[in-house]
Amino acid sequence: MTSPTTIASIDCDPLDLPLLRPFGISGGVRSHAANVLVSVTLADGTRGLGEAAPLPAYDGLTQERVLAELAAARTSIEGRDAAGWRAVGACASTGPARAAVETALLDALARRDGRSLRHEFGGAADALETDMTVALG
């Protein structure tokens, strides 16, 4: 029997975004982000979104490689229970792809429960902790 949180499908599409200003680090400069949009649909129709942001100058990964990796992982992802999002995310081997799959799964689960991702992550923080890359120039 299929659970409402069974992953019915995963779709991955190129997401090309122009940048307001070129972004440069020691490995190169980019004028657009060549990302990947991941959409997960659960058996009950709930949809969640995630985004992979490969940066060849930083991690050596390209949009094409992430798309190929996610296409290869599709059969390992579809049919599984989204509630086991960490294990499902591990079907993607690179950081950007895994982050996109996990975010899409968590987004779908949160939407299904009528909650925000903020609540899924505890909802109690007064500050946002992040990692920052300092651009050149």
Compact summary:
With 137 residues, this protein is α+β, with helices and mostly antiparallel strands.
What does this structure look like?
Helices cover 34% and strands 29% of the residues. It is α+β, with helices and mostly antiparallel strands and 137 residues long. The chain has a three-stranded antiparallel sheet with strand order 1-2-3. Strand 2 and strand 3 form a beta hairpin. The protein is globular and about 55 Å long.
Topology diagram in text:
Elements: E1 7-25, E2 28-42, E3 47-52, H1 56-59, H2 63-77, H3 85-89, H4 95-112, H5 117-120
Main attributes?
3 strands; three-stranded antiparallel sheet; 5 helices; alpha+beta; 137 residues
Helical content, roughly?
25-40%
β-sheet strand percentage: 25-35%
- What is the arithmetic mean of pLDDT? 90
State Rg.
Answer: 16 Å
Order of strands across the main sheet: 1-2-3
Q: Report the structural category.
A: alpha+beta
Largest sheet: 3 strands, antiparallel
Helix count?
5
Strand element count? 3
- Pick out the low-confidence regions: none
What letter string, H or E per element, gives the SSE order?
A: EEEHHHHH
Task: Label the overall shape.
Answer: globular
Measured between the Cα atoms of the first and last residue, the distance is 57 Å
